[in-house]
Design goal:
The chain is built from 15 helices and ten strands. The protein is α/β, with parallel strands linked by helices and about 325 residues long. Helix 1 crosses helix 2, helix 2 runs antiparallel to helix 11 and helix 5 packs across helix 15. The site of (2S)-2-hydroxybutanedioic acid has 9 residues, from loops.
């Protein structure tokens, strides 16, 4: 893992640089919405690009388009079905049109930490989720971690009642909308690329996201502070189109699969470090972080937990039980 981490960190600087694909190579366009520096997805995508282009030279070539330069997440999956991109890694909250199985990850306080998320995803139940969209033309290649979400607003948030009456940007997820409504917040779905502007101009008052996204998008600059709630998970599915995947020569598919699996394992093992680095970078840049004591955090748990009941049937009590058994 250490060697892989070192490699990944050295490619970060080159992230986003377009690969020069040669004539005859299978071109793999990977479109995503985050930055590439101090970001789990940005680093993983860059490493994937580097390994494919080094090890599959002459056969296949990857071009990574970060920062929503090619598509926002609300367009990328349609674009994939049209054959315009071959890979993407939207957050698990962005697949509602295709499957509801990922709703378990949006339920607040479902997993106690990222190790629990990792264990659940690597269980038989979790791995089966990669094939939950095959009928709709999408195949999951691997879960990619980002981390736990935090809350920020244009006023300090210590208790959930501090957020009541505010408007928060949310990802397009019914569970997240319900979670916000549970604390009296009005949820406003919006593309990731528009959030900074919306916070800056006051179109919305707050948002929830991970340290790497709060840092990467500079949300801390236009918020009063970020509260360390760790209330939910933001993870990704690296996804491809079944048509494209099935059309690949078998040796190419096998080699790609091996590289994807190795990148997934090594980068998922390194997220704690990337997350901590982004958190520290916010502080270094003058951003404010509000830490909660046990009692204050419990108030967020109490306010949000009723959301489970609303989605119990969609998510499946057996899946909830499996997640809770991992936490224990
Ligand atoms: C968001 O829309 O807030 C995130 O899903 C962005 C990302 O890809 O991390």
């Amino acid at each position: 893992a250490t060697a892989a981490t070192a490699v990944a960190l050295t490619v970060t600087g080159a992230a986003g640089a377009m690969a020069q694909c040669d004539e005859g190579e299978i071109v793999i366009k990977l479109s995503h919405v985050t930055n590439t520096d101090k970001h789990p997805k940005g680093i993983a995508a860059s490493l994937l690009q580097q390994r494919i282009n080094d090890e599959m030279n002459g056969k296949a070539c990857m071009e990574v388009y970060p920062n929503s330069t090619l598509y926002d997440d609300d367009k990328v999956l349609e674009a994939m079905l049209q054959g315009d991109v071959q890979m993407a890694a939207p957050s698990l909250s962005k697949f509602e049109q295709f499957t509801k199985v990922f709703r378990i990850f949006d339920l607040p306080f479902m997993f106690k930490n990222m190790e629990a998320v990792d264990e659940f995803q690597n269980s038989e139940t979790g791995q089966a989720m990669k094939e939950s969209m095959v009928k709709r033309g999408l195949l999951g290649l691997g879960f990619w971690h980002n981390g736990l979400k935090q809350m920020s607003a244009n006023k300090p948030l210590v208790l959930p009642t501090d957020a009541a009456g505010l408007k928060f940007r949310v990802q397009p997820s019914e569970v997240i909308k319900a979670q916000m409504e549970a604390i009296g917040v009005s949820p406003q779905p919006m593309a990731f690329s528009e959030v900074y502007g919306a916070l800056q101009t006051g179109v919305v008052d707050g948002q929830e996201n991970t340290w790497s996204n709060v840092y990467g998008q500079k949300f801390f600059e236009v918020q009063d502070g970020t509260t360390e709630t760790n209330h939910g998970v933001l993870d990704y599915m690296l996804v491809t189109s079944t048509d494209w995947w099935d059309s690949l020569p078998e040796d190419v598919r096998t080699q790609l699969e091996t590289i994807v699996n190795e990148v997934t394992t090594s980068r998922n093992a390194a997220i704690a470090e990337v997350d901590a680095e982004a958190r520290q970078a916010i502080l270094d840049a003058g951003g404010k972080i509000v830490e909660l004591n046990a009692e204050q955090r419990q108030a967020w748990v109490d306010a949000m937990l009723p959301v489970w009941e609303q989605f119990k049937e969609d998510v499946g009590q057996d899946n909830i039980d499996a997640a809770q058994a991992i936490n224990a």
